[in-house]
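Quick one:
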Amino acid sequence: MKRSICIEYMQSGKSRKEIAMKYNLPSVVTLSGWIHSCLSPLEIHEKCASLPPVTVQMDSAMAKKNEEMPMDVASMSALIEAQRKQIAKLEKELKYSMDKTLALNTLIDVIEEQGIKVRKKAGVKQ
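Output:
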């Protein structure tokens, strides 16, 4: 049965997920394991030799998608402006965080001058 499921996968052109769902397999990893254990490399090559290569189809689809989406100047400048605003916001948050860290360290220094130990000792306790 495992072998026939593997052969069906190789000849049908369906995805591993579709075959796994069809036969109620726990995951696609199970099907992958079966393929490597039940079929020899020669059989794998013979069974899937008639299928078209997937990479060619994906490359042509990506090329069509890139041709359909040219960016005009207005959308490009709007994108740049949005990124500038985000950078300014992040710089403001960073400055606030650095100021807060400085204030907390100063507070700890003042407390330790009064004889209260706040910071942990360096090193690992065993």
